[in-house]
Amino acid sequence: MDFRGAHIISVKQFERADVDQVFQVADNMEPYAHREKVSKVLDGAILGNMFFEPSTRTRVSFGCAFNLLGGDVRETTDVKTSSITKGESLYDTARVISGYSDVIVMRHPQVGSVAEFAKASRVPVINGGDGPNEHPSQALLDLYTIKKELHSRQRAIDGMHIAMVGDLKHGRTVHSLSQLLFLYKDIKFTLISPEELRMPTEIVAELKAAGHVVIETDDMETGLHDNDTVYLTRIQEERFTNKLEADIYRGRFRLNQAIYTRNCQPNTVIMHPLPRDSREDANELDNDLNQHPNLAIFRQTDNGVLVRMALFALILDVADKVDLSAKPVGWYTESRFE
Ligand code: CP
Questions:
Q1: Catalytic positions, written as ranges
Q2: CA gap 248, 235 in Å, rounded
Protein backbone atom coordinates (compact mmCIF):
# COMPACT_ATOMS: atom_id res chain seq x y z
CA MET A 1 0.00 0.00 0.00
CA ASP A 2 1.00 3.63 -0.35
CA PHE A 3 1.21 4.89 3.24
CA ARG A 4 1.58 8.54 2.23
CA GLY A 5 -1.59 10.35 3.30
CA ALA A 6 -3.38 7.05 4.07
CA HIS A 7 -5.95 6.48 6.80
CA ILE A 8 -5.11 3.46 8.98
CA ILE A 9 -8.48 2.02 9.95
CA SER A 10 -8.13 -1.78 9.79
CA VAL A 11 -5.39 -4.40 9.60
CA LYS A 12 -7.22 -5.73 6.55
CA GLN A 13 -5.60 -2.86 4.61
CA PHE A 14 -2.16 -4.46 4.93
CA GLU A 15 -0.24 -6.90 2.79
CA ARG A 16 2.71 -8.67 4.35
CA ALA A 17 5.14 -6.31 2.57
CA ASP A 18 3.40 -3.34 4.23
CA VAL A 19 3.91 -4.88 7.66
CA ASP A 20 7.58 -5.48 6.83
CA GLN A 21 7.92 -1.84 5.79
CA VAL A 22 6.44 -0.59 9.09
CA PHE A 23 8.77 -2.88 11.05
CA GLN A 24 11.83 -1.74 9.09
CA VAL A 25 11.05 1.93 9.75
CA ALA A 26 10.27 1.08 13.41
CA ASP A 27 13.77 -0.45 13.75
CA ASN A 28 15.26 2.85 12.52
CA MET A 29 13.39 4.76 15.23
CA GLU A 30 15.20 3.02 18.07
CA PRO A 31 17.94 5.66 18.68
CA TYR A 32 15.23 8.35 18.95
CA ALA A 33 12.82 6.40 21.14
CA HIS A 34 15.73 5.26 23.31
CA ARG A 35 16.86 8.86 23.86
CA GLU A 36 20.19 8.58 22.08
CA LYS A 37 19.33 11.03 19.30
CA VAL A 38 16.79 13.81 18.72
CA SER A 39 15.00 14.42 15.41
CA LYS A 40 13.01 17.51 14.41
CA VAL A 41 11.69 16.06 11.17
CA LEU A 42 8.07 16.90 12.10
CA ASP A 43 8.91 20.36 13.50
CA GLY A 44 5.78 22.49 13.03
CA ALA A 45 3.41 19.53 12.48
CA ILE A 46 0.43 18.95 14.80
CA LEU A 47 -1.16 15.67 15.88
CA GLY A 48 -4.84 15.78 16.85
CA ASN A 49 -5.01 13.02 19.49
CA MET A 50 -8.79 12.54 19.84
CA PHE A 51 -9.67 10.05 22.57
CA PHE A 52 -13.37 9.67 23.34
CA GLU A 53 -12.80 6.57 25.48
CA PRO A 54 -10.33 5.91 28.33
CA SER A 55 -6.73 5.15 27.42
CA THR A 56 -3.31 5.30 29.02
CA ARG A 57 -0.74 3.77 26.65
CA THR A 58 -2.31 4.29 23.23
CA ARG A 59 -2.96 7.99 23.78
CA VAL A 60 0.32 8.75 25.53
CA SER A 61 2.51 6.63 23.25
CA PHE A 62 1.01 8.15 20.09
CA GLY A 63 1.64 11.59 21.62
CA CYS A 64 5.22 10.68 22.61
CA ALA A 65 5.88 9.17 19.17
CA PHE A 66 4.84 12.44 17.53
CA ASN A 67 6.87 14.54 20.00
CA LEU A 68 9.94 12.33 19.45
CA LEU A 69 9.77 13.23 15.75
CA GLY A 70 9.64 16.93 16.66
CA GLY A 71 5.88 17.52 16.30
CA ASP A 72 3.30 19.00 18.70
CA VAL A 73 0.21 17.29 20.14
CA ARG A 74 -3.27 18.64 20.88
CA GLU A 75 -5.71 16.25 22.49
CA THR A 76 -9.05 15.45 24.04
CA THR A 77 -9.10 12.80 26.72
CA ASP A 78 -12.80 11.93 26.98
CA VAL A 79 -16.26 12.66 25.63
CA LYS A 80 -17.29 14.75 28.65
CA THR A 81 -14.86 17.56 27.82
CA SER A 82 -15.60 17.60 24.07
CA SER A 83 -18.51 19.23 22.24
CA ILE A 84 -19.77 15.78 21.23
CA THR A 85 -21.69 15.98 24.55
CA LYS A 86 -23.54 19.00 23.10
CA GLY A 87 -24.72 16.87 20.17
CA GLU A 88 -21.95 17.67 17.67
CA SER A 89 -21.64 15.00 14.98
CA LEU A 90 -18.53 13.01 14.10
CA TYR A 91 -18.70 14.67 10.67
CA ASP A 92 -18.47 18.19 12.10
CA THR A 93 -15.83 17.17 14.64
CA ALA A 94 -13.70 15.65 11.87
CA ARG A 95 -14.05 18.71 9.61
CA VAL A 96 -13.01 21.00 12.46
CA ILE A 97 -10.11 19.01 13.94
CA SER A 98 -8.67 18.21 10.52
CA GLY A 99 -8.32 21.96 9.96
CA TYR A 100 -6.15 22.16 13.08
CA SER A 101 -4.01 19.03 12.57
CA ASP A 102 -1.73 17.30 10.08
CA VAL A 103 -2.73 13.82 11.21
CA ILE A 104 -5.33 12.54 13.70
CA VAL A 105 -5.48 9.54 16.01
CA MET A 106 -8.97 8.73 17.20
CA ARG A 107 -10.48 6.32 19.73
CA HIS A 108 -14.24 5.98 20.12
CA PRO A 109 -16.53 3.34 21.67
CA GLN A 110 -18.63 2.72 18.55
CA VAL A 111 -17.73 0.12 15.91
CA GLY A 112 -17.10 1.91 12.58
CA SER A 113 -16.88 5.38 14.19
CA VAL A 114 -13.26 5.99 13.17
CA ALA A 115 -13.98 5.00 9.55
CA GLU A 116 -16.93 7.41 9.55
CA PHE A 117 -14.73 10.16 11.05
CA ALA A 118 -12.00 9.49 8.47
CA LYS A 119 -14.45 9.97 5.58
CA ALA A 120 -15.06 13.54 6.74
CA SER A 121 -11.46 14.30 7.73
CA ARG A 122 -9.20 16.43 5.54
CA VAL A 123 -6.06 14.73 6.94
CA PRO A 124 -5.04 11.08 7.58
CA VAL A 125 -6.73 9.35 10.51
CA ILE A 126 -5.34 6.42 12.52
CA ASN A 127 -7.77 4.14 14.37
CA GLY A 128 -6.80 4.11 18.06
CA GLY A 129 -9.59 1.59 18.77
CA ASP A 130 -13.24 1.62 17.66
CA GLY A 131 -15.26 -0.21 20.30
CA PRO A 132 -14.79 -3.99 20.18
CA ASN A 133 -13.92 -3.89 16.49
CA GLU A 134 -10.25 -3.12 15.74
CA HIS A 135 -7.03 -1.69 17.17
CA PRO A 136 -4.62 -1.83 14.22
CA SER A 137 -1.61 -0.07 15.74
CA GLN A 138 -1.80 -2.41 18.76
CA ALA A 139 -1.76 -5.41 16.39
CA LEU A 140 1.30 -4.01 14.63
CA LEU A 141 3.18 -3.46 17.90
CA ASP A 142 2.11 -6.89 19.16
CA LEU A 143 3.36 -8.56 16.00
CA TYR A 144 6.56 -6.50 16.05
CA THR A 145 7.12 -7.73 19.61
CA ILE A 146 6.33 -11.34 18.68
CA LYS A 147 8.80 -11.13 15.80
CA LYS A 148 11.60 -9.82 18.05
CA GLU A 149 10.85 -12.25 20.89
CA LEU A 150 10.72 -15.27 18.58
CA HIS A 151 13.83 -14.14 16.70
CA SER A 152 15.78 -14.17 19.98
CA ARG A 153 14.56 -17.76 20.45
CA GLN A 154 15.56 -18.79 16.87
CA ARG A 155 11.89 -18.96 15.82
CA ALA A 156 9.81 -17.11 13.22
CA ILE A 157 6.21 -15.93 12.92
CA ASP A 158 5.49 -18.44 10.14
CA GLY A 159 4.68 -21.75 11.78
CA MET A 160 4.30 -20.37 15.30
CA HIS A 161 1.80 -21.53 17.90
CA ILE A 162 -0.11 -18.84 19.78
CA ALA A 163 -2.70 -19.14 22.54
CA MET A 164 -5.12 -16.23 22.96
CA VAL A 165 -6.85 -16.23 26.32
CA GLY A 166 -9.83 -14.41 27.85
CA ASP A 167 -12.54 -12.22 26.36
CA LEU A 168 -12.03 -13.00 22.69
CA LYS A 169 -15.53 -11.78 21.80
CA HIS A 170 -15.06 -8.14 22.84
CA GLY A 171 -11.26 -7.83 22.71
CA ARG A 172 -10.37 -5.61 19.75
CA THR A 173 -6.66 -6.35 20.18
CA VAL A 174 -7.13 -10.07 19.55
CA HIS A 175 -9.45 -9.34 16.62
CA SER A 176 -6.82 -7.20 14.94
CA LEU A 177 -3.84 -9.39 15.86
CA SER A 178 -5.42 -12.61 14.57
CA GLN A 179 -6.45 -10.89 11.33
CA LEU A 180 -2.90 -9.58 10.91
CA LEU A 181 -1.49 -13.08 11.51
CA PHE A 182 -3.79 -14.17 8.69
CA LEU A 183 -1.02 -12.85 6.37
CA TYR A 184 1.51 -15.41 7.67
CA LYS A 185 1.79 -19.16 7.12
CA ASP A 186 0.83 -22.24 9.14
CA ILE A 187 -0.06 -20.58 12.44
CA LYS A 188 -1.68 -22.69 15.14
CA PHE A 189 -4.19 -20.65 17.15
CA THR A 190 -5.46 -22.01 20.46
CA LEU A 191 -8.36 -19.79 21.46
CA ILE A 192 -9.09 -20.16 25.17
CA SER A 193 -12.27 -18.47 26.38
CA PRO A 194 -15.61 -19.14 28.00
CA GLU A 195 -18.09 -20.48 25.43
CA GLU A 196 -20.01 -17.16 25.53
CA LEU A 197 -16.87 -15.04 24.89
CA ARG A 198 -15.45 -16.88 21.89
CA MET A 199 -13.66 -15.23 18.98
CA PRO A 200 -16.23 -14.01 16.36
CA THR A 201 -17.08 -16.90 14.04
CA GLU A 202 -16.24 -14.92 10.89
CA ILE A 203 -12.64 -14.38 12.08
CA VAL A 204 -12.25 -18.08 12.96
CA ALA A 205 -13.66 -19.05 9.54
CA GLU A 206 -11.24 -16.70 7.74
CA LEU A 207 -8.25 -18.11 9.62
CA LYS A 208 -9.24 -21.69 8.84
CA ALA A 209 -9.91 -20.85 5.18
CA ALA A 210 -6.37 -19.43 4.97
CA GLY A 211 -4.97 -22.80 6.11
CA HIS A 212 -4.26 -21.96 9.76
CA VAL A 213 -5.12 -24.43 12.51
CA VAL A 214 -7.66 -23.09 15.02
CA ILE A 215 -8.55 -24.88 18.25
CA GLU A 216 -11.25 -23.40 20.49
CA THR A 217 -11.41 -24.52 24.10
CA ASP A 218 -12.41 -23.44 27.60
CA ASP A 219 -9.75 -25.70 29.16
CA MET A 220 -6.96 -23.22 29.89
CA GLU A 221 -4.35 -25.56 31.33
CA THR A 222 -4.47 -27.94 28.35
CA GLY A 223 -4.66 -25.03 25.92
CA LEU A 224 -1.44 -23.55 27.29
CA HIS A 225 0.69 -26.54 26.25
CA ASP A 226 2.97 -26.26 23.26
CA ASN A 227 2.80 -22.52 22.48
CA ASP A 228 5.48 -20.05 21.42
CA THR A 229 3.36 -17.16 22.72
CA VAL A 230 0.52 -16.82 25.21
CA TYR A 231 -1.50 -13.63 24.71
CA LEU A 232 -3.78 -12.84 27.65
CA THR A 233 -6.67 -10.38 27.64
CA ARG A 234 -8.85 -8.68 30.22
CA ILE A 235 -12.59 -9.28 30.52
CA GLN A 236 -13.83 -6.15 28.70
CA GLU A 237 -16.39 -5.11 31.31
CA GLU A 238 -17.16 -1.86 29.47
CA ARG A 239 -18.53 -3.81 26.47
CA PHE A 240 -21.15 -5.75 28.46
CA THR A 241 -24.68 -4.31 28.40
CA ASN A 242 -25.25 -5.93 31.78
CA LYS A 243 -22.11 -5.19 33.82
CA LEU A 244 -23.01 -7.90 36.34
CA GLU A 245 -22.54 -10.47 33.55
CA ALA A 246 -18.82 -9.57 33.42
CA ASP A 247 -18.53 -10.76 37.04
CA ILE A 248 -19.32 -14.30 35.89
CA TYR A 249 -16.19 -14.44 33.73
CA ARG A 250 -13.75 -12.24 35.64
CA GLY A 251 -10.99 -14.28 37.28
CA ARG A 252 -11.88 -17.46 35.43
CA PHE A 253 -8.69 -17.63 33.36
CA ARG A 254 -5.55 -16.61 35.21
CA LEU A 255 -1.89 -17.05 34.46
CA ASN A 256 0.49 -17.12 37.39
CA GLN A 257 3.94 -18.59 38.01
CA ALA A 258 2.62 -22.01 39.08
CA ILE A 259 0.22 -22.39 36.12
CA TYR A 260 2.90 -21.17 33.72
CA THR A 261 5.52 -23.59 35.02
CA ARG A 262 3.07 -26.50 35.02
CA ASN A 263 1.76 -26.00 31.49
CA CYS A 264 3.89 -23.76 29.28
CA GLN A 265 7.08 -24.50 27.38
CA PRO A 266 10.07 -22.94 29.18
CA ASN A 267 10.50 -20.42 26.33
CA THR A 268 6.85 -19.37 25.93
CA VAL A 269 6.54 -15.59 25.56
CA ILE A 270 3.90 -14.00 27.83
CA MET A 271 2.02 -11.06 26.30
CA HIS A 272 -0.94 -8.84 27.21
CA PRO A 273 -2.04 -5.64 25.44
CA LEU A 274 -2.63 -4.04 28.88
CA PRO A 275 -4.26 -2.73 30.92
CA ARG A 276 -4.30 -5.96 32.93
CA ASP A 277 -6.97 -6.06 35.57
CA SER A 278 -4.93 -6.42 38.76
CA ARG A 279 -7.90 -6.38 41.13
CA GLU A 280 -8.05 -9.46 43.29
CA ASP A 281 -11.19 -10.88 41.68
CA ALA A 282 -9.68 -10.62 38.18
CA ASN A 283 -5.87 -10.81 38.07
CA GLU A 284 -5.68 -12.54 34.68
CA LEU A 285 -1.89 -12.02 34.66
CA ASP A 286 -0.44 -12.31 38.13
CA ASN A 287 2.24 -9.99 39.53
CA ASP A 288 4.24 -13.06 40.57
CA LEU A 289 5.38 -13.26 36.91
CA ASN A 290 6.65 -9.65 36.91
CA GLN A 291 10.32 -10.61 36.99
CA HIS A 292 9.97 -13.54 34.59
CA PRO A 293 12.32 -13.10 31.60
CA ASN A 294 9.61 -14.32 29.21
CA LEU A 295 7.16 -11.62 30.34
CA ALA A 296 7.16 -9.26 27.33
CA ILE A 297 4.38 -6.86 28.36
CA PHE A 298 6.62 -3.85 28.96
CA ARG A 299 8.70 -4.62 25.88
CA GLN A 300 5.33 -4.45 24.05
CA THR A 301 4.61 -0.97 25.46
CA ASP A 302 8.12 0.25 24.59
CA ASN A 303 7.78 -1.19 21.07
CA GLY A 304 4.49 0.69 20.71
CA VAL A 305 6.39 3.98 20.50
CA LEU A 306 8.66 2.66 17.71
CA VAL A 307 5.73 1.34 15.66
CA ARG A 308 3.68 4.51 16.12
CA MET A 309 6.67 6.67 15.13
CA ALA A 310 6.98 4.50 12.02
CA LEU A 311 3.31 5.00 11.14
CA PHE A 312 3.63 8.79 11.42
CA ALA A 313 6.87 8.80 9.42
CA LEU A 314 5.32 6.73 6.62
CA ILE A 315 1.97 8.54 6.51
CA LEU A 316 3.63 11.98 6.53
CA ASP A 317 6.34 10.77 4.13
CA VAL A 318 9.40 11.59 6.22
CA ALA A 319 10.74 8.07 6.87
CA ASP A 320 13.90 8.76 4.88
CA LYS A 321 14.39 12.26 6.37
CA VAL A 322 14.36 11.43 10.09
CA ASP A 323 18.16 11.28 10.34
CA LEU A 324 18.74 14.54 8.43
CA SER A 325 17.86 16.70 11.44
CA ALA A 326 19.33 14.29 14.01
CA LYS A 327 21.55 15.43 16.84
CA PRO A 328 22.63 13.78 20.11
CA VAL A 329 20.34 14.27 23.13
CA GLY A 330 21.40 17.25 25.24
CA TRP A 331 20.25 16.03 28.65
CA TYR A 332 21.20 13.31 31.12
CA THR A 333 19.61 9.96 30.27
CA GLU A 334 19.94 6.47 31.70
CA SER A 335 19.49 3.40 29.58
CA ARG A 336 16.19 1.78 30.56
CA PHE A 337 15.26 -0.11 27.38
CA GLU A 338 15.85 -3.84 26.90
N1 CP B 1 -3.56 -1.46 24.93
C2 CP B 1 -4.33 -0.35 25.03
O3 CP B 1 -5.09 -0.02 24.10
O4 CP B 1 -4.21 0.32 26.20
P5 CP B 1 -4.95 1.68 26.58
O6 CP B 1 -6.44 1.37 26.64
O7 CP B 1 -4.39 2.11 27.89
O8 CP B 1 -4.68 2.67 25.48
A1: 57-58, 86, 107, 135
A2: 10
Domain 11-134+304-332 annotated CATH 3.40.50.1370: yes
CB atoms within 10 A of CB 236: 21
Beta carbon of 273 within 6 Å of any ligand 1 atom: yes
Quick: pLDDT tens for 269-312.
999 999 999 999 899 999 999 999 999 999 999 999 999 999 99
* Nearest CA-CA partner of 178 in 137, 224, 143: 143
Q: Which residues contact 316 (CB under 8 A, 6 or more apart)?
A: 4, 42, 45, 102, 103, 124
**274 Cα nearest atom in ligand 1:** 1
How close is the Cα of 249 to the center of ligand 1, in Å?
A: 21
Q: Ligand 1 centroid vs 173 CA: distance in angstroms?
A: 9
Measured in angstroms, how far is the CA atom of residue 61 from the centroid of ligand 1? Answer: 10
- Would you say the CB of residue 138 lies under 6 angstroms from ligand 1? yes
Overall pTM > 0.90: yes
Range(s) within the chain of domains with CATH label 3.40.50.1370: 11-134+304-332, 136-298
CATH number of the domain at 136-298, out of 3.30.750.24, 3.30.9.10, 3.40.50.1370, 3.40.220.10?
3.40.50.1370
Q: In what order do the strands lie in the sheet with 72-76?
A: 72-76, 46-51, 103-108, 125-130
Atom of ligand 1 minimally distant from the CA of 128 = 3
pLDDT tier, 253 (very low <50, low <70, confident <90, very high otherwise): very high
